[in-house]
Automatic annotation (TrEMBL):
It comes from the Bacteria. It comes from Rubrobacter tropicus. PANTHER family: FI03373P-RELATED (PTHR11709:SF394), MULTI-COPPER OXIDASE (PTHR11709). One of its GO terms (molecular function) is oxidoreductase activity. InterPro entries: Cu-oxidase-like_N, Cu-oxidase_2nd, Cu-oxidase_C, Cu-oxidase_fam, Cu_oxidase_CS, Cu_oxidase_Cu_BS, Cupredoxin, CuRO_3_CopA. Residues 58-162, 171-328, 371-481 form the Plastocyanin-like domain. Keywords: Copper, Metal-binding, Oxidoreductase. Pfam families: Cu-oxidase, Cu-oxidase_2, Cu-oxidase_3. This is Multicopper oxidase domain-containing protein.
Length: 482
């Protein structure tokens, strides 16, 4: 497993550089104290290696690409106000990049090849460095083509300087979809979609798509497979809790094409953050997590036993799962396909969320600029557009620096689109004036949805659908803040 910075706290003040552990960890961290006592500048330093790796899908193992030894990539965790410095080493056979999803940072560090930087060529390195001023649950991932879908992602946690939540245990759950065949080549999946073979809706059509690259799929593997922290449903991660514990779960969805409906049997969840930003706590049985979204929830461990935590892939009967086990409880795991009763209840909606009081954000109703955004797609050709244009043959969207901008989106298609804006947070307009602060928002089929944001971070920022195949099919724009 990846080392966290805590492993190296003892090195603070030694002024060491990054430390790489040969073979067994792609990531390491050292702490550096400032050379002068006056400075409060702190650097969390990591080395991140993108390379070919083997992944166990609950029986057969597949070769794919990732950061470090497996999926997800190693957790990167730092303190608000610290500077993150990550040396990316590209051991892949093609160019790559790292995007720090959700983090407002200087444009040059945003990791979008062709927009904010050249791709980092095979065999080359690149150092990302930025100050993490906004605490929250984020992720990092490749922004090169469909590489994200091979497994090039990991969680990024920025802890607040003053933590107001109190909890006994914390688990980060990254929920991924493994869509296609044994060789896991997303470009083949994309070509099939373009050719009109297979479909993404509900992904029932995906099960026949295994065995790309000439390899026969193992008969016992039915694609897609859904993974929590890289683990298939047959070998789930066990989350241990003590009776009476307050448990924080950070739910992260790096999937290319799956919205999850998440519930924990025998327990309710209290949502505390959307995309890392605090909301007024709201209790629910179940919630939806779209591609690119993150939710932080608190669970009161007051119901001893062994419980299913299920993330059902929307539109299917399949799920990713983990198991919540109370200490001292030796019972067997619930069966892999056991659906928690809580999943049958209503999903939490954006309308039920209010940003926490005192959160800075753009107030609704007073935009300097209103931008209509029409989302269209053609299932036949798999071309997806924003206002009729498919990236990269698309004009930039202009926003004046300092302007309050309102994006009024209309989804004309029959697919949900998780729309993600880089470099900024926005406020979802849910009619209350206090909609949740987010960076990724699901626009459901035939739905209209608006968000407001302050264009205070100059540069060229990607705005796109986080369904990776829609993004690849053109549903992306550059937003120019100048
Ligand atoms: Cu998660 Cu444009 O990215
Ligand atoms: Cu989409």
């Amino acid at each position: 497993s990846g080392l966290t910075r805590l492993d190296f706290l003892g090195l603070a003040g030694l002024g060491t550089g990054a430390l790489v552990l040969g073979g067994c960890s792609a990531l390491s961290s050292t702490r550096q104290n400032p050379p002068t006592a006056r400075s409060t500048y702190k650097v969390a330093e990591y080395v991140l290696e993108a390379s070919v790796l083997k992944l166990n899908l609950g029986g057969p193992s597949v070769e794919t690409w990732g950061y470090g030894e497996g999926l997800p990539g190693p957790e990167i965790r730092l303190q608000q106000g610290e500077t993150l410095r990550v040396r990316l080493r590209n051991r892949l056979p093609e160019g790559t990049s790292v995007h720090w999803h959700g983090v407002p940072l200087p444009n040059g560090m945003d990791g979008v090849p062709g927009v904010t930087q050249d791709p980092v060529a095979a065999g080359e390195s690149f150092t990302y460095e930025f100050r993490a001023d906004d605490p929250g649950t984020y992720m990092y991932h490749s922004h090169s083509g469909l590489q994200l879908d091979r497994g090039l992602y990991g969680p990024l946690i920025v802890e607040p300087e003053n933590e107001t939540l109190s909890y006994d245990r914390e688990y980060v759950l990254t929920i991924d979809d493994w869509l296609d065949g044994v060789d896991g080549v997303p470009e083949d999946t994309y070509e099939k979609l373009r050719a009109g073979e297979g479909e993404m809706a509900g992904m029932e059509g995906m099960s026949g798509m295994g065995g790309t690259g000439g390899a026969e799929p193992e008969p016992d593997v039915k694609y897609p497979v859904y993974l929590i922290n890289g683990k298939p449903p047959e070998e789930p991660e066990e989350l241990e809790v003590g009776r009476g514990d307050t448990v924080r779960l950070r739910l992260v969805n790096p999937s290319s094409a799956t919205i999850y409906r998440v519930a924990l049997a025998g327990h309710r969840m209290t949502v505390t953050h959307t995309d890392g930003q605090p909301v007024e706590p709201v209790e629910t049985d179940a919630l939806r997590v779209g591609m690119g979204e993150r939710y932080d929830v608190i669970v009161k461990a007051a119901n001893p036993g062994v419980w299913q935590l299920a993330a059902r892939a929307e539109g299917t009967r399949k799920m990713a799962r983990a198991v919540l086990r109370y200490e001292g409880t030796n019972g067997p795991q619930p069966p892999p396909d056991l659906e928690p009763r809580e999943l049958g209840s209503e999903m939490l909606s954006y309308n039920a969320l209010r940003s926490a009081p005192g959160i800075d954000g753009v107030e609704a109703g007073s935009p300097d600029r209103v931008v209509p955004i029409t989302l269209r797609g053609d299932e036949e050709t798999y071309v997806w557009t924003i206002n009729g244009q498919a990236f990269p043959d698309a004009d930039p969207i202009e926003a004046g620096r300092g302007e309050r901008v309102r994006f009024e989106m209309e989804n004309t298609t029959m697919m949900p689109h998780p729309m993600h804006l880089h470099g900024h947070f926005f406020r979802v307009d849910n009619g209350t004036g206090r909609g949740p602060i987010k960076d990724t928002v699901l626009v459901d089929p035939k739905q209209r949805l608006a968000f407001d944001w302050l264009a205070d971070n100059p540069g060229d920022w990607a705005f796109h659908c986080h369904q990776a195949y829609h993004q690849e099919g053109g549903m992306m724009r550059v937003v120019k803040v100048a």
